[in-house]
Write a structure and sequence with these properties.
It is a single chain. By secondary structure, the chain is mainly α. The protein has one domain. About 50% of the residues lie in helices and about 0% in strands. It contains four helices and no strands. Helix 1 crosses helix 4 and helix 3 packs antiparallel against helix 4. The longest helix is centred in the C-terminal third of the chain and has 31 residues. It is elongated and about 60 Å long.
Length: about 130
């Protein structure tokens, strides 16, 4: 769906934005907080340092906020379209349940988007056997 070299490829595959080969996060998708936050310090493929300065990923909170607002607006519109005038307590319960269910994905997605905004794709790093000194 997304081609390697495009802006959204690294975001949707959680790979390094520079080489599109190395993984951003350690392990798979999990709901354990200690496993959600495990992120490689450097790209396993091209050795890009992910946290470019201390506190670099604090900016990802703004992206996370935007994703969360989009989720709440989607829940509000969907509940209004599907159920008409719905009880606000049901809307709140559905929204909170979805928020907690999608929390690991929102966390990882916001970090991937934030990193993609600052690191451009470089085709010379996107080769199978990269030799970095």
């Amino acid at each position: 769906m997304f081609k390697r070299g495009g802006k959204l490829y690294s975001v949707m595959h959680f790979t390094c934005p520079r080489c599109h080969r190395g993984k951003l996060f350690v392990g798979g998708f999990s709901y354990r907080f200690s496993e959600i936050t495990n992120m490689h310090e450097n790209c396993p493929h091209c050795k890009l340092k992910y946290e470019q300065e201390p506190g670099f990923f604090y900016g990802a909170m703004y992206v996370s906020y935007g994703l969360t607002v989009a989720l709440w607006i989607s829940v509000a519109v969907a509940s209004f379209v599907l159920f008409g005038g719905i009880n606000p307590w049901i809307y709140l319960a559905v929204g909170i349940t979805l928020l907690f269910a999608l929390l690991p994905g929102i966390y990882r997605l916001s970090r991937a988007i934030w990193l993609m905004m600052f690191v451009p794709y470089e085709a010379e790093y996107d080769i199978e056997n990269l030799k970095i000194d």
